[in-house]
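Hello forum,

I keep getting stuck at the same step: I have a sequence, I want structure tokens, and every attempt I make locally crashes halfway through. Rather than fight my setup again tonight, could one of you with a working pipeline run this one for me? It's a single chain of 379 residues.
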Amino acid sequence: MQSPFRRGAAAPMTMLSLPVKTPMAFMSCENQSTTAFEKDVDLGPLVRCRHLLVLSYSDKKTAPSVRGERLRAYLRELDVVAPRFDAAIARTGRKHICLAWRDAGPFSLRRTYTSLSNERAAALFAMAVEESRAAAEEDRREPDGIRRACAALCDAAGFLRASASEGSSGGDKASGSGDRLKHVSGACMAAFEVLVLAQALECYFELAVAGGKPLALCAKVAQQVGLDYDRVQGYMATAPDMDKAWMVHAQAKAAYFRGDACLRSARVLREKGDGDGVGEAIARLRQGLESLDVAKGALWKVAGPVRDATKRLRKEIETDLAAAERDNCRIYYARVPSAAALAELPGLPQLLVRPTAVEKILRQGAETDASAAGEQKAS
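Reply #2:
Ran it on my machine without issues. Output:
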């Protein structure tokens, strides 16, 4: 099967990124001057760090990598100030500091937090957004690009899991229209975590195919990716505020990878060189076509690269099916089982992709920043 991920071939299939959350300038909840916060020994660094973060979002020319670095720095600053946050607020003579975020979209609404826990949950979600965007924009036509995209998606899953945990223990509700940012709920973040991990496993599949791994292994990975996208649909169906286009995308990807798994499994059976597997191979190829037919409505609504990849897959399945049926009629005369008689194709026996621990990501970022600062000082 020709890999769509080798040099000179068509672009890899589109991946989804998460909805953007934009930080707003900080303020005093009493509508008074913020100078006291800026001068405080503990709150001052946090205020300055958030100011740089807000600037990175307001300037459209800011590189995504810079935005990610500033988010990581802001998260580290939140962790540093957390033990002394309440005492620092009391020193300023104010009741609260207001930390605001805005949802993306034409009808975006502002949410304001006073709890450091909920602020950290929002920042973690924003970091997951940036990681998912970096993965979606990565050039995955070469193995190094695939690996970077996979790592970014695992990092995004880690940030989402940490955000869900942080948000569930938050001490306040947001002011504004609604109690918290859109999508920053347990159900939504669980759905997004399953989504980014499915996309990370899709990267693993791309690496397996581009690396010439055995057909049987690629078939198992493809089947697992299909099962994971089925899970994505299930999670999204029960989560609020989910865009229908995301569910259509997941349905189309699930159908594609089930079809791909059927094609590769059929080729494994036919490579045996005898008639024992020909009948099952024909049944598998028909099953693959049926998978694509069932999701035909979704496949016409997704992005162009997904539609194009599906057309190529369908053509390959049809070509293999015609050849298998011709050989069976002329040589083997094997019985073709019904689709109901086929066992479900096996997926992977263990997880290949997992959420990255947030502490590890932030620690690595701090080490990188320290190294860069040392080099700059030396020069």
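The chain has a mean pLDDT of 89. If your local run keeps crashing, start a new thread with the error log.
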